[in-house]
Description:
Blueprint: H1 2-15, E1 22-25, E2 28-36, H2 42-47, E3 56-65, E4 73-75, E5 77-85, E6 90-93, E7 96-100, E8 103-111, E9 116-126, E10 133-141
Antiparallel strand pairs: 1-2, 2-3, 3-4, 3-8, 5-6, 5-9, 7-8, 9-10
Amino acid sequence: MKRFVLLLCSALACTGAWAQNATQVNGYTIHHNALTTDSLSPKVASAYQIQRSKGRGMVNISIIKDKQNTTGTPVAGNVKLSSRNLIGQQRDIPLREIREGQAIYYIADFPVGHREQLVFDVEVLPEGGNYPLAATFQQEFFTD
């Protein structure tokens, strides 16, 4: 899992998108990222049973409970993900929970087309929470 986390951090740093890929809402930070799976190393893709391909997208979501003067605490939750393209076609994307140590992530992979632009809607009900939190982000995929 440490390889997976390092890979995702590297991918985010390369795109310069780390700061933009988080939504803060009601005491939580929802981290979200989307990329094509060909950027995963073969070892990481194999370990998490993800097909490496320019024609496959991947989303990674984590929920952090904000704590002042810290980086926060990862929490589990009920996470729902859907996407819609620019002409309004919508699909639900099932997520898998990944845990290692204190880290908790939700990942999914799915087919994408060249220059496909998707808007992702995330609904999170943190463990122990009373109501769902929402985040929306957008990603264009380049497959050529």
